[in-house]
Write a structure and sequence with these properties.
The structure is a homodimer. The first copy, chain A, has one domain: Orthogonal Bundle (Tetracycline Repressor, domain 2), CATH 1.10.357. Chain A is about 70% helix and about 0% strand. The first copy, chain A, is elongated. Chain A is mainly alpha-helical. The two termini of chain A are about 20 Å apart. At the A-B interface, helix 6, helix 8 and helix 9 of A face helix 6, helix 8 and helix 9 of B.
DNA sequence: TGGAAGATAGTAATTAATTACTTTCTATCT
DNA sequence: AGATAGAAAGTAATTAATTACTATCTTCCA
């Protein structure tokens, strides 16, 4: 049947995470109420607390969900690449596609980082970003070793800028209210970034990022259950 | 006297803006209460509403304050520069100094953009960023014409990336909780950006951004009353 | 049928805004 | 100048709405 009233707890928890992420795409994450989440799920507000001890616990579940998926995806993307630079590019594309599919996610991360209290969820965001930039830095170092990236490149700064580039695109989407503009603007942004970190000067593209053909892998394979 | 009980309305409004920005540096802008603002000013909560019709009106006053100062500063910085590229650099440095002096500001802008409703304040942020990027794009075009910037540069993407670079640094400061790290990381980030947009390949710096000597102008002149 | 999942109906705390009243400043008129 | 009326600014208390969370009863299904 389509709508069994009673669902197993694990599935309900997963649905809750989904619902929250979906809502975060539409409204300010910090003022999403538990009532709104419940409504989106066709549930009463009190029922949520059968599955989570607190609202913050729901946030933590979201962060865990994000960290798992995002890191898994970028690892996979990096593995299929044939060189550090193409790996960086693949990670960029993958991340962009992730953000387009789940626009609420970056908004929740940003919202969580804004909080002053050192919440568990905030710690999880920190950990996620540390893992993320560590991988980037490793790639950068390897790229420098292979002569593909500028020998004088500041890997740490490059990693920060990488994340900033994506965040800039996200902010643009907040400005225009149109998420899919990200995909159109991403290639241009990455082209500049690429030029900033690569060695030599094979000036104009050759970059593959070109004009909106994602990796077929990315387009199809991840139905994201 | 040090503490006259009754202040003229205009000064009180200005103080309110200051207090809110100061608070935003310490806690999540979206959950700063009117009571907290009042307390910081040594006032009772109700008194605020003698000067503003609503909480949103206070936010609007903040946005106006920011737009005026930020645009004025970057205009001044750009004027003193001798070329488009150095102008871009000067704007970057100026903006960074502004953010370091008022860490609450970017947090409030981000927080406002996150809101789903199209508030007046949000519209003001949009306008500010449009003006900002317009100026950047104009500089980029000029730089291309003069051969200082890459002829194939996508000016719009470059402007987005410019703002994203700054935002990435801000996010880093949210991660570490240390605002002044921004100043240390800024030169590295801009060096990569610069390399990404400039023509030719005078690879390593010569950029002036070097290692934390701000424009003396910036360091001294703006006491920012 | 027994236990997990959900509904219903609360509670206590918080918060923007308002109201009735008091204090302080200031312009005007002798 | 000095008194004073009235406007401007501030206080303290209250209100209505919202929100996370809980206690108790009901339904579903394995």
């Amino acid at each position: 049947m389509a709508h069994p009233k009673h669902l197993p707890a694990e599935q309900r928890r997963n649905d809750t995470v989904r619902a929250l992420i979906a809502l975060a795409a539409e409204q300010n994450p910090t003022d999403i109420t538990t009532a709104a989440v419940a409504k989106r799920m066709g549930l009463t507000q009190g029922a949520l607390f059968r599955h989570f001890p607190s609202k913050d616990a729901i946030l933590e579940a979201v962060m865990e969900w994000v960290a798992e998926r995002l890191l898994a995806r970028i690892d996979k993307a990096a593995q299929t690449a044939s060189s550090p630079l193409t790996a960086v590019e693949a990670i960029f594309l993958t991340h962009i596609e992730f953000v387009i599919k789940h626009p609420g996610v970056p908004r929740m991360l940003i919202g969580e980082l804004q909080r002053s209290e050192n919440t568990v969820a905030k710690g999880m965001v920190r950990t996620l970003l540390r893992c993320y930039t560590e991988r980037l830095i490793r790639l950068m170092e390897e790229g420098k070793k292979q002569g593909q990236l500028d020998a004088d490149l500041d890997s740490s700064a490059a990693a920060t800028l990488f994340v900033g580039t994506i965040q800039g695109l996200v902010m643009q989407s907040l400005l225009t209210g149109n998420v899919s503009h990200i995909r159109r603007q991403a290639p241009g942004a990455f082209a500049i970034y690429r030029r900033g970190i690569a060695s030599g000067q094979l000036s104009t593209q050759e970059s593959g990022v070109g004009h909106d053909h994602r990796h077929p892998v990315e387009r199809k394979k991840w139905s994201d259950r």
